[in-house]
Write a structure and sequence with these properties.
- The strands form 3 sheets. A two-stranded antiparallel sheet has the order 1-2. Strands 3-4 form a two-stranded antiparallel ribbon.
- The longest helix is centred in the last third of the chain and has 18 residues.
- The chain is flat, with a radius of gyration of 28 Å.
- The chain contains 8 helices and 6 strands.
- The chain folds into 3 domains: 87 residues, no CATH class; 40 residues, no CATH class; 41 residues, no CATH class.
- The protein is of the alpha+beta class.
- Bound molecules: zinc ion.
- Zinc ion binds next to helix 7.
Length: 200
């Protein structure tokens, strides 16, 4: 058995430790907001795993891209025979509520279709909720959002008035920026001062 590294005993140091804390909260803490879906729904934490050292020994470290998944029974308990480390995608494919869509003879989950047709899973779900047929949802290309003709304060978003914000690359209103900009105000004040000085 590998020796426990000290970091595991301190909160915030180990991802595996934080994951274990999360399980404990959901399953054992009646005040946890998720308790009703876990402990309150009959999900148990294997008694030996009430101690983190035992959980770590049985499950090993959480791989960086994976988290705890109850498998094969997604409604079952946290116990060695029903736990694995899995990626978010692997977990989604294993959910109770997994929706499968059949199109052109193929049945896949929504995330799998999203990969296939290059339309986001959330967009696909939104379309189906809005009453689109499976065929429409999977085949109609995503419409690019049309840029708004005016900024929030009504300045026209055209030509020179548009600039790209350096922090997020999004289109923004130059007039608003100038009105907000301290640098701009300082320069404007300086110009006014210079004008007054020159006028004397
Ligand atoms: Zn504006």
């Amino acid at each position: 058995m590998p020796a426990l590294s000290h970091s595991h005993t301190r909160k915030g140091k180990s991802r595996t430790y934080r994951i274990w804390c999360g399980i404990k909260q959901r399953v054992l803490n009646t005040n946890d907001p998720r308790y009703s879906d876990y402990g309150g729904a009959g999900v148990k934490l294997y008694v030996r795993w009430h101690k983190f050292e035992n959980f770590l020994q049985d499950m090993g470290e959480a791989p960086p891209d994976k988290s705890i998944d109850r498998y094969p029974d997604p409604a079952g308990s946290y116990e060695p025979s029903n736990c694995r480390w899995a990626t978010a995608k692997e977990q989604q494919n294993n959910r109770r509520t997994t929706v499968r869509l059949t199109f052109q003879g193929e049945t896949l989950t929504i995330p799998q279709w999203a990969d296939r047709v290059k339309i986001g899973a959330d967009a696909l779900r939104g379309r189906l909720r809005s009453g689109w047929s499976v065929e429409q949802a999977l085949t109609v290309p995503v419409e690019k959002k049309r840029p708004k003709p005016n900024c929030q304060r009504g300045h026209p978003m055209r030509g020179n008035n548009i600039y790209l914000r350096p922090d997020n690359g999004k289109r923004a209103c130059r007039t608003c920026r100038n009105k907000n900009s301290k640098v701009h105000n300082r320069r404007r004040d300086a110009r006014t001062r210079d004008a007054r000085t020159n006028a004397r």
